Amino acid sequence: MDVAESTTDSPPTVELSPQQVTARRWQLFTVSLVVIGIDQATKEWARQTLADGSIEGPFGSSLRLVDNYAAAFSLGEGFGPVFGLLAIAISVAMYWIVKQIEPRSVVFGLGLVQGGAIGNVIDRAVRDGDGFLGGGVTDFLEVGDWWPVFNVADIGIVVGGILVALLSSRD
């Protein structure tokens, strides 16, 4: 295989100007901050409003307060601190990775993921629990009996991840 063939198989590298890198980082920060703000506000609302019971909604949905000490989708009981540290590491890495990303829409998706990850890490850090990052994540959105209870941070992570995957696959 010659050099020309090997370069077509690898993704192109993007050289952004320092101003573009700064703009991408501000976009990442802003989107993350918005997700964190909405997430924490809705979790506080849920803790205040749903402490005495759930609210039934249409089509088998409800608002029900749950403290999730496991990882995503209530899986991995006891590994919450590990996932918390992983979320922090990924969030820090995104700050550096974003300087190589051309489409701003991908940066938007990364901001959704980062904001969701940090929103859940905040819960692990400040809620009651066992040890470092052992607090429970506040979940309160329930869609029938077939899906785990989730929150706005989880929505950011899933929607952002799908957006990044779809937009990245187009290149």
Question: What topology emerges from the helices and strands here?
Answer:
Layout: H1 3-9, H2 18-49, E1 55-56, E2 61-68, H3 80-97, H4 104-126, E3 137-143, H5 152-169
Antiparallel strand pairs: 1-2, 2-3
Helix pairs in contact: 2-4, 3-4, 4-5
Short description, anyone?
By secondary structure, the protein is mainly alpha-helical.
Could you explain how this protein is built, in words?
The chain is mainly alpha-helical and 171 residues long. The chain has one domain. The protein is built from five helices and three strands. It has a three-stranded antiparallel β-sheet with strand order 1-2-3. A hairpin with a 4-residue loop joins strand 1 and strand 2. Helix 2 packs across helix 4 and helix 4 runs antiparallel to helix 5. The longest helix has 32 residues.
Query: Ranges with pLDDT <50 over ≥5 residues?
Result: 1-11
Major β-sheet annotation: 3 strands, antiparallel
**Strand fraction:** 5-15%
Helical segment tally? 5
Average pLDDT confidence is 86
Number of strands: 3
State the helicity in percent bands.
55-70%
Question: Order of strands in the sheet with the most strands?
Answer: 1-2-3
N/C terminus separation: 23 Å
- Return Rg in Å: 19 Å
Shape, please? globular
Structural class by secondary-structure content: mainly alpha
How many domains in all? 1
- Summarize the helix and strand pattern as letters: HHEEHHEH
User: Oligomeric status of the shown chains?
Assistant: single chain
